[in-house]
């Protein structure tokens, strides 16, 4: 057993207790898996990314399911945080630089490192959107670390490199109220800015996460609850079953990284569709979608618009496992309750109005009426 596996094992009871107090319920939905059998071959767990909680939560649940030796990529904005950063590294995190994370040489070296990890028996948890979605929409996949799955399969054709798609949907995302602060910091800390600007940017950038996670990590003490969480996943899929790696290989490329760019693009396109369709829509997404178009609406009209919305997306590749079990009245009632957690709306005297447009825009972005 590897050192980080031992560290995870030590804290599992405390982590389970923490999640039980922080969330009212955690629902895991997917097929029954045989982790020991699956991990006889290289594995990459690939998930949507809405919160820093994703790292701990997905890793914790995969560990409880029986998966061993889990590693995960985490941004330096997380691993450099006081106290929590070293904890992440002890639990198997490896750092990804947000400043150089999309530079060619950096990504190539990072992928080579991940290939070695997987070849050594580690399973890698990856969030291929390249960071949390600040818009609320599923982001186009970044090549990045997921290219390691393609490269390992190309180098070891007798192996079966697999990936396990997953999506995490929160009723109350701890980070969301501070995204505006984080984005301001992200803009200011760019390397092209002056040192004073970068310094201020770092204060906003790291300060936003600290403001979000101090109360979250002390949820029990502060008597806070962050509602329900839903983790949906699929059975592992063999990379070589969906991508013709050798057929796509570009001969005479300058390096292996370039040789597989066609396979990487196909893999990224496939992941985008899978992750978007796995992400579970909740009542707040439906209510936000209605409000984002009308800003202010009566309860009666909101109910009618929700009915029209659910009909229009019923045949599209969305995860409607929650919405399909509810009536329009229930969707409206629960959506209002969920949005009130963020103080994003008012619902008085039969009228629903927006108080925080950025929150409504965030949740409505998960639904595209034009299709997936």
Write the layout of secondary structure elements.
Layout: H1 3-22, E1 25-29, H2 35-38, E2 43-47, H3 53-65, E3 70-75, H4 76-79, H5 84-90, E4 93-96, H6 104-119, E5 123-126, H7 147-155, E6 162-170, H8 179-188, H9 195-217, E7 228-233, E8 237-238, H10 239-242, H11 245-248, H12 256-259, H13 261-278, H14 283-294, E9 296-298, H15 299-313, H16 328-340, E10 345-348, E11 351-354, H17 357-364
Parallel strand pairs: 1-7, 2-5, 2-6, 3-4, 3-5
Antiparallel strand pairs: 6-7, 6-8, 9-11, 10-11
Helix pairs in contact: 1-3, 6-7, 8-9, 14-15, 14-16, 14-17, 15-16
Describe this structure in words.
The chain has two domains: 3-173 and 226-278, Glycerol-3-phosphate (1)-acyltransferase, CATH 3.40.1130; 283-364, Arc Repressor Mutant, subunit A (Orthogonal Bundle), CATH 1.10.10. Strands 1, 2, 3, 4, 5, 6, 7 and 8 form an eight-stranded mixed sheet that branches. Strands 9-11-10 form a three-stranded antiparallel sheet. It has 17 helices and eleven strands. Helices cover 49% and strands 14% of the residues. It has helices spanning 3-22, 35-38, 53-65, 76-79, 84-90, 104-119, 147-155, 179-188, 195-217, 239-242, 245-248, 256-259, 261-278, 283-294, 299-313, 328-340, 357-364, and strands at 25-29, 43-47, 70-75, 93-96, 123-126, 162-170, 228-233, 237-238, 296-298, 345-348, 351-354.
